[in-house]
Amino acid sequence: MNTLKTLTRNFHSCGHECAKVVPKNLKGRGKSSQEWLTRQLSDPFVEKAKMMNYRCRSAFKLVEINEKHGILKPGFTVIDCGASPGSWCQVAAAETNSNKAQETKPVGLVIGIDLLQIYPIPGVHLLGNADFMKDETQQNVKSILCERKVDCVLSDMAPNATGIRNLDQENITKLSYSVLRFAVLTSSVDASLLVKLWNNGDVPQLEKDMLRFYKTVKMIKPVASRSESAEVFMLAKGFLGLKS
Ligand SMILES: C[S@@+](CC[C@H](N)C(=O)[O-])C[C@H]1O[C@@H](n2cnc3c(N)ncnc32)[C@H](O)[C@@H]1O
């Protein structure tokens, strides 16, 4: 029971994230709460994230993608959309050296945005209580950038699921296009864009639209992403730049 309390108190589930050890005391809990705890306790990424001080198991999705595709480097400027509780920002701060942990390496800039409040993370500019879809939020990000071009835009944003499939799909697609538009307007040539999607009918069109601006577009399902989850990531690399 103590383990359960500790897990639920100190560790974020990232919405639908996070664990097969069967917890002993599940009395009085609803079915979905029981399933969540069971999943949580059986998930190796949950334990690993606690050991490595990541706020959330989602960190390993970005770690894996970055190891394979090299999208984060020391000195890079990174925008993290849908950043709460902050594990992607933690990874980005370490990889870009925005936390100045490596004295001899260039220092990057990481900006994290979320509808929710985010506890401070060393080396990261955080915009909490901010809706990325609002022009005001994007202007705030641009004023932090101060003409600096972006090397990598990340989006792990997910709308609150309404349970109405078509509406949920429409909402996540809207988020993706908002991120694509922002990335196109702020990125440096050769920059990358990583966007979370739910594998739905809009994916081929989004892929086509991304290919107008990037050299390559790839669908990725990281090992840390649960197989039963519809989430996939679209990685666009090699931003071609805007003609004017
Ligand atoms: C799966 S969580 C992100 C986890 C994060 N990548 C991490 O590693 O800690 C998705 C986040 O997207 C945020 N989100 C959804 N819609 C948003 C919007 N319009 N603007 C900003 N954040 C949004 C949610 O509040 C939620 O915190």
Tell me about this structure.
By secondary structure, the protein is α/β, with parallel strands linked by helices. The chain has 2 domains: 2-51, no CATH class; 59-239, Vaccinia Virus protein VP39 (Rossmann fold, 3-Layer(aba) Sandwich), CATH 3.40.50.150. The protein contains 8 helices and 7 strands. It has a 7-stranded mixed sheet with strand order 3-2-1-4-5-7-6, sandwiched between helices. β1, α5 (87-96) and β2 form a beta-alpha-beta unit. It is globular. The structure holds S-adenosylmethionine (SAM). S-adenosylmethionine binds at residues 14-15, 55-56, 58-59, 82-88, 113-116, 131-133, 156-159. Residues 54-239 form the Ribosomal RNA methyltransferase FtsJ domain. GO terms for molecular function: rRNA (uridine-2'-O-)-methyltransferase activity. Keywords: Methyltransferase, Mitochondrion, rRNA processing, S-adenosyl-L-methionine, Transferase, Transit peptide.
Brief summary:
By secondary structure, this protein is of the alpha/beta class. The protein has helices spanning 2-10, 31-42, 44-51, 59-69, 87-96, 135-145, 165-186, 203-210; strands at 77-81, 109-113, 124-127, 150-155, 187-198, 214-220, 231-239.
* Uncertain stretches of 5 or more adjacent residues: 1-10, 15-19
As for the CATH topology of the largest domain, it is: Rossmann fold
Total number of beta strands: 7
H/E element string?
Answer: HHHHEHEEHEHEHEE
Determine the structural class based on helices, strands and strand pairing.
Answer: alpha/beta
The molecules bound to the chains, other than polymers, are: S-adenosylmethionine
- The spatial strand order of the largest sheet comes to 3-2-1-4-5-7-6
User: Helix count, per DSSP?
Assistant: 8
Beta-strand content: 15-25%
CATH class of the largest domain reads: Alpha Beta
Give the CA-CA distance, first to last residue. 60 Å
> How many independent structural domains?
2
The backbone outline, from C-alpha atoms, is: globular
Largest sheet: 7 strands, mixed
> Approximately how much helix is present in the residues?
25-40%
| CATH architecture term of the largest domain | 3-Layer(aba) Sandwich
Pfam family, one: FtsJ
Protein name: rRNA methyltransferase 2, mitochondrial
Subcellular location: Mitochondrion
Domain Ribosomal RNA methyltransferase FtsJ: 54-239
